[in-house]
Amino acid sequence: MCRDTTQENIRVTVRPCPICDTQASTPVDRYSRDPWSVERCDDCRHVYLKNPPGYGALEENFAWQKTFRSEHERRLKESPIAYRLDVATRFRHAWFRKSTVEKYRAWFRSGNILSIGCGNTRGWFQDFTPYGIEISKELAAKADSNMSAHGGYCIFGPGAKAIWKFPAKQFDGVVMNSYLEHEEAPLTVLKGASRVLKSEGAIYVRVPNFGSVSRRAIGRKWCGFRWPDHVNYFTMADLRNIAARANLKVRLLNPLRLPFDDNINALLTHKI
Ligand SMILES: [Zn+2]
Predict the structure, then answer these.
(1) Is CB count within 10 Å lower at the N or C end of the chain?
(2) Is the pLDDT of residue 5 over 60?
(3) 25: CA distance to ligand 1 center in Å?
């Protein structure tokens, strides 16, 4: 069971392992940042934030668009060379990347697509019926207006709660792009996604790759650390483990460069 407490006027939750629900864990001090305690599960070995700030704080104080600027400045100050290289590499990869709509056509073909943590992006609406879940009230209202014009809608709220408001087997595709690392209850949202996914549908997941060479090499300066926004740090084994518990299997989209990639890109589909 989760336990609520108050820490410097921020309401936080002390939680068990988000993958296997084991309460016992060991602090990893070198990856923690006071008051945020990063810990390793004593059972499945998943590394996660033990005391996340809770959905309310995420919505009001730690929403990505608000913390991006302070994170940028902090990392530039702490590690200017490593950070500038990281930004340059991401830009180079982005330059050769396919457009969002091209990727969605390849993964989902057509139909109803649900984007969890959708923000207000809309470059892919023309070929699909767009649906969304968004924890920022302001962005959810904008997304709902834009999605309604294309036959869909957006629900305001945390993904693990809002996903249960959609009918079963409604979606050809579900998108979790840089979302699952923020979600306090990732197994609940994956079970919900499995329920709303059609039998031939697929879930796209992109999360920071905790097993990457650069995380091992540069430690707490690694770009995947963000306190307290990132609450789950997935390795490939972690992703397979949590997917299996939601009756899903994982197909890796970046298998060859995975060890050197700061992100895991994968499609999750129903187990037969
Ligand atoms: Zn565990």
Answers:
(1) C
(2) no
(3) 8
